[in-house]
Every structure is written in C-alpha cells, then in structure tokens.
Design a protein that fits this description.
With 343 residues, this protein is mostly helical. 73% of the residues lie in helices and 0% in strands.
C-alpha cells in the first residue's frame, strides 16, 4: 500500500486547464484583499474550488450543464450544512440523515454519485463556515459568486482553447444514459441488502465520527467527519488504498503547511494557493497522496476565512484525520469484509 501510495501515474498535462484552475482560486482572494474583506474572498474561492473539476469534457452545452449541476449540488450542500448549525444540538443528526439520503439517490448513475459526494463534502464545510461571525446568507452569496465566477472562467477557457487557439478535437463527453434503464437498475439494486451497503457503511461511520467529535469537543472536530466522507468509497476494494493515501498525504501536508504557511505574509499565502489550485487536478489524477498533501493546508486556509494558519491547527487536523481513517477502516471496511459488494 505504501508503494502504491507513492507511485506516480503518467498523466497528460493541459497547461490551459492548469492556468484556469489557478486563476479560479486566486482571483476571488485577490479581489477580497483589494476590497478589504479577505474572508469573503476565501469563501468565494471555496465556491470556485467546487466547480474546478467540472466542465472539461464535451461541447458547450454538456460543459454548461455539468457546471450547473455541480454548482447546485455544492451550494445546496453548503446551505444545508450552514442551516444545520441553527438546529443544535440536533445539527449533527441532520447532517448524517441528509448524507444518507444523498447516498441513496447517488446510486442512480455516475453523475448522481458525483453530485451526492460533492453535496455531502460541502455540507460539512458549510457547517464549519457557519461557526464564524459572518451571517449565513452572506456566506452563501459569496460562495455562489465564486462558483459562478469559476464556471464562467472555465467556459471562457473552453472558448479560447477550441476557437481562438484552433484546437479541433475536444475531449469526448460520456455517452447519454437512459433514465428509464438507470431507474430500473437502481430499483432492483435497492431491493437487495447489497444495494444499501454504501449508505449503511457511510452512515455508520458518520455516526461514529459525530460521537467522537462530541466526546473530543475540539473546535474543528468536523474534520473527522470530512475524512470519513472522503475515505469511505462506494468501491469497497478502493477503501484501504484511499485510506493509506489520505493518511500519508495529510501527515505530510501538516508538516509542509506548518513550515510554510504559518510564517508567510498574506500575499505569499495567496500565491501558494494559486499554485496549489493550478496543480490539484493534475495531482489528483497522478498521485492521490500528493493531492491530499496539498489539499490539507489549502482547505484549512480557505475555511479559516483568512485567519493565521497555526501549527497547532494543522496538528489538530492530523489527529482528526487519523481518527477518521481509523473509523473508516474498522466500521466502514473491516466490519463489511465478508459481504458481497454490489456492482
């Protein structure tokens, strides 16, 4: 597993997409600095981060629809997470319930699975953002503005790449799927225990994470929940590898983030965010460990709304990630080892 976690895949590097990813994160933060509200820029950058992995295949219509679906899924998740803090102490139960419902409908088709995961991830991030003094409606406006800006920039890059630069062969979009067939297959799967396996695995891990968070009572214990969501995969076989890669990458990310970001001025931090934003999609495809390494300090900085990133904060992130990985391994995988995995 360690060897696999450090192995790099050969991935074609698209320079235009790299520049687009860096600008989509950097521009909102720079605007926030200029306008004197760095926190607003960070929230907008989270919105841009949401859509940065969408809209890169197919024609204009397919890209636009994919960006719209991604924006809606992430925005609805973020809104639900922020509003869940109003219903304390039942907010944690609400998040687990909504996540379970999302996983059920995520089994309809691959695009639904992607949207459900995005909604759950940003629901947890939204809950953490709501702990700040900024009103929830203001956070949502900035988040939506960042998602809209990132989407428009992606479509602009598509126009430049394929019309001004003369690139003729666009990446092929996935073939259209029949909703009737997908719905029928989904109903048949949900009539069996194996069809509920991912929902049960994730929900049980999230419940355990919430219990641990209540016992620990750390200011950022939602990272335990976020780790569980990222590590527990629909594909049972990918679980151990993903856990090792995320754990190792997070540990290295804490070390790198603590050494670099804690002592840098804000303008240098913004520059690093742009570089990380530019490289993240390439790293995700080439080496997930390296992707987890750069995403650890990145999400910590953005969700911190411009506050100083301290070594103690990153150390807490490492502890929470370790707890989340252990919960995922024991409850999400080991307890289900003898069961049959649904296709």
């Amino acid at each position: 597993m360690i060897v696999d976690a450090t192995r790099w895949k050969r991935v074609e590097l698209n320079v235009v997409h790299v520049v687009n990813a860096g600008l989509s994160l950097g521009v909102p933060i720079v605007l926030g600095l200029v306008l004197g509200d760095i926190g607003a820029g960070m929230v907008a950058a989270l919105g841009a981060l949401l859509v940065s992995g969408s809209g890169h295949v197919g024609g204009l219509k397919y890209r636009s629809l994919e960006l719209l679906n991604t924006s809606l899924a992430g925005a609805c998740g973020a809104a639900a997470g922020m509003l869940s803090t109003v219903f304390q102490p039942w907010g944690g139960i609400l998040i687990v319930t909504l996540a379970a419902i999302a996983t059920i409908f995520g089994g309809l088709r691959p695009s639904a699975a992607k949207a459900s995961t995005q909604a759950i991830v940003f629901m947890i991030i939204g809950a953490s953002l709501a702990s700040s003094a900024v009103p929830i409606e203001t956070l949502l406006w900035f988040f939506a503005a960042g998602a809209l800006g990132g989407s428009l920039l992606t479509l602009l890059v598509f126009g430049v790449e394929y019309h001004l630069l003369g690139k003729t062969a666009a990446e092929v979009a996935p073939a259209r799927r029949s909703w009737h067939k997908d719905l029928g297959a989904w109903r048949r799967r949900m009539a069996t225990l194996s069809g509920w396996q991912y929902t049960l695995r994730l929900a049980s891990c999230m419940i355990a994470a919430q219990v641990v968070a209540i016992l620990v009572r750390g200011p950022h214990s939602q990272w335990i929940l976020l780790t569980v969501v990222l590590v527990v995969q629909r594909d049972h076989r990918a679980g151990l590898a993903r856990t090792v890669q995320r754990g190792l990458g997070t540990a290295l990310g804490v070390l790198v983030g603590g050494l670099l970001l804690g002592a840098l001025p804000i303008w240098a931090t913004v520059g690093i965010i742009c570089v990380v934003g530019a490289a993240r999609q390439y790293l995700k495809a080439a080496n997930y460990t390296a992707y987890a390494l750069v995403m650890t300090p990145l999400v910590a900085v953005l969700s911190g709304l411009g506050h100083q990133l301290s070594p103690s904060l990153l150390g807490e992130r490492l502890v929470d990630t370790t707890i989340g990985c252990l919960i995922s391994l024991v409850i999400g995988y080991a307890a289900w080892r003898g069961t049959r995995q649904a296709a």
